[in-house]
Amino acid sequence: MKLFDTHIHSQFSPDGRMTMREAVRAAEKFGLGGVSFTDHFDVDAPGDNSHFSFDPVNQQNQIEKLQKETSLFIGKGIELGLQPNALSSAARAVSMFNFDVIIASIHFVDGIDPYHDKYYDLRQERVAYGRYLESIYECISGYKDFDILGHFDYITRYSPYLNKTLSMSEYGDFLDPILINLAQNGKALEINTNTYRKRGGSTPFLDIAVIKHFRQVGGEYMTLGSDAHDSERVGDGLKSAAATLLDAGFEHFTYFAGRKAVRVKIT
Ligand SMILES: [Zn+2]
Ligand SMILES: [Zn+2]
Predict the structure, then answer these.
(1) What is the Å distance from ligand 2's center to 162 Cα?
(2) 53 to each of 45, 97, 102, 199, how far by Cα in Å?
(3) How far apart are alpha carbons 120 and 75 in whole angstroms?
(4) Which domains does the chain have, with CATH numbers?
(5) Cβ–Cβ < 8 Å for 174, 108
(6) What is the SS3 string spanning the chain?
(7) Ligand 2 centroid to 107 CA: how many Å?
(8) Distances from the Cα of 262 to the Cα of 2, 75, 147, 258, 259, angstroms
(9) Torsion angles phi and psi, residue 78, rounded to 5
(10) What average pLDDT does the chain have?
(11) Ligand lying nearest the CA atom of residue 8
(12) Ligand in closest contact with the CA of 81
């Protein structure tokens, strides 16, 4: 079995630190079956984040060139940043292009990026994490044109709290409606391995109960993404993420081609 990295960023993302060709070479070296370039596209991003978008025509032309050079599957993707008050502009933006895969990600909560300390001012952990999860639910309730929910636990990467895990036992009341919504709409949940790395002295980890619960409520599709922004991280952590899927009762991981789910048996 070859793994597929369904979430990587190229030079078309403002924070991308690899060219598409470097990413493809890294994926070949790693032995992956394919990658999807999901560059940042945040609609109506607040503050100084308006540069978090790209021209899909240029990005897709470049992908088509690379597709001729490799036997790897290379997906035309987008990481669409959603906010509850900008869902119709997000829909308009993506409707103009054809993608293999659309990842819906929530990068801002009430106009603030939880990457910045300001978000945590005067908030207790449960309020800060809970509001992030509520925002995810608001977005996926009002917007359906996507395939994967990206990094549901993004906020734990940057939070100042000791607890950096959104566990089912502590956050199940927020997670349950999200997982049910995804399952009922045939959407995929992502294990984003970029989250489970040491930052600021502690390392978030994934609670397998979240993946198990997604399966229990009827979730069928799980994707694996490194969220790599440089060539060293392409494919990073995907092997152990696939093992986690098996432990949670999933026999397949998924990638998307032409917006259709393709399941690959984990062996
Ligand atoms: Zn993201
Ligand atoms: Zn990303």
Answers:
(1) 24
(2) 9, 14, 14, 26
(3) 36
(4) 4-265 (3.20.20.140)
(5) no
(6) CCCEEEEECCCCCCCCCCCHHHHHHHHHHHCCCEEEEEEEEECCCCCCCCCCCCCHHHHHHHHHHHHCCCCCEEEEEEEEECCHHHHHHHHHHHHCCCCCEEEEECCCECCECCCCHHHHCCCCHHHHHHHHHHHHHHHHHHCCCCCEECCCCCHHHHCCCCCCCCCHHHHHHHHHHHHHHHHHCCCEEEEECCCCCCECCECCCCCHHHHHHHHHCCCCEEEEECCECCHHHCCCCHHHHHHHHHHCCCCEEEEEECCEEEEEECC
(7) 10
(8) 13, 12, 12, 10, 9
(9) -155, 140
(10) 95
(11) 2
(12) 1
Q: And the tokens for 53? A: 């978008």
Report pTM.
Answer: 0.97
Q: Kindly report, residue by residue over 121-171, the tens digit of the pLDDT.
A: 878 999 999 999 999 999 999 999 999 999 999 999 999 999 999 999 999
- Residue where the block lists tokens 């060539």: 231
Instruction: Tell me the β-bridge partners of 112.
Output: 109
One-letter identity of residue 149: L
**Ligand 1 centroid to 9 CA: how many Å?**
10
Q: Does 48 score more than 90 pLDDT?
A: no
Contact between 8 and 225 under an 8 Å Cβ cutoff? The reply is: yes
For the beta sheet containing 101-105, the strands, ordered from the edge strand earlier in sequence to the opposite edge, are 4-8, 34-42, 73-81, 101-105, 148-149, 188-192, 221-225
Report the alpha-carbon distance of residue 37 to residue 24 in Å, rounded.
Answer: 10
Measured in Å, residue 39 CA sits from the centre of ligand 2 at 7
Q: How far apart are CA 264 and CA 267, in angstroms?
A: 9
- Give the position of tokens 């930052």: 199
